[in-house]
Amino acid sequence: MLEKLLIKEGLSLTPYKIERLEDFANTLMSWNKIHNLTGAKSLKDIYKNIIDSLYPMSFIDTPNKVLDVGSGAGFPAIALAIVFDESEFVLCEPLQKRVSFLKYVSFELENIIVEASRVEDLKNYQFDLIVSRAVTNTEMLINLTKHLSNSSSKYLFYKGERVFDEISKFSNSINYDIIQKNRRNYLYIKSL
C-alpha cells in the first residue's frame, strides 16, 4: 500500500527504502498503542505522515547534515533519514518516551543521532538543513536554532495556514518559497 501511495505522489524509491519505511510505520503503530506518540492511529494515517514528510524531496537538494527540531514520533526526520541515507541526521527531542522510541527505531539507521535535549541546549553542531514540523512559530524556530546554523543553512518547516502571517514579519529580509500541497504549507527558507 505504501508503495502505491508513493508512486501516486511521484516519489520513486527503491524497494529496500520502502521496506524500511514500512518497518518504521509498523514499529510506530505498535509503540503508539502503549505510549501514545502520535495522533495517527492507523497504518493509513501513518503512511499519510510519511508521504507528508517525504514530499519535500521534490524541491530540496540532498542535505549533508540535518537537524530535526522536536522530532516527536519521527516525522519528518525518520522518513527523510531513510531516503537520504548518505546524510547525517540529528533528532532533537526533550521528552523521554519519544527519545526512547526514536532511539529504538533508529537503531539500525547508522545516519541518525538522537539528542535528548531542548534545541536551545544543543551545542557543537552546525547544520546545512534545519527541519521542524508542528513545533512553534517560524520566528521562534529560527531564533532557537541560530547557534546551530551558518550563512548557507537552509530551513524546511512543515506549516499550516498561519505560515503566511508568520512569514510576513520578515518582509523581504529572507529568501524563501512556500510550496503548498493539500492543507500543508512547506516553508523552505533558502537564506536569511
Fold and architecture overview:
It is a single chain. The chain is of the alpha/beta class and 192 residues long. It has one domain: Vaccinia Virus protein VP39 (Rossmann fold). It has a 7-stranded mixed sheet, with helices on both faces. Strand 1, helix 4 and strand 2 form a beta-alpha-beta unit. Helix 2 crosses helix 3 and helix 2 runs antiparallel to helix 4. The longest helix is centred in the N-terminal third of the chain and has 21 residues. The chain starts with a helix and ends with a strand. The mean pLDDT is 94.
> Helicity level, as a percent range?
25-40%
Q: C-alpha Rg, in Å?
A: 16 Å
Distance between termini? 40 Å
Report on the biggest sheet.
7 strands, mixed
Instruction: Describe the strand arrangement of the main beta sheet, using strand numbers.
Output: 3-2-1-4-5-7-6
Work out the strand percent: 15-25%
Topology pattern, helix = H, strand = E: HHHEHEHEEHEHEE
* Mean pLDDT rating: 94
SS elements, strand count? 7
Poorly predicted residue ranges: none
Spatial shape: globular
User: Which structural class matches the secondary elements?
Assistant: alpha/beta
CATH homologous superfamily? Vaccinia Virus protein VP39
Number of domains: 1
Query: Number of helical segments?
Result: 7
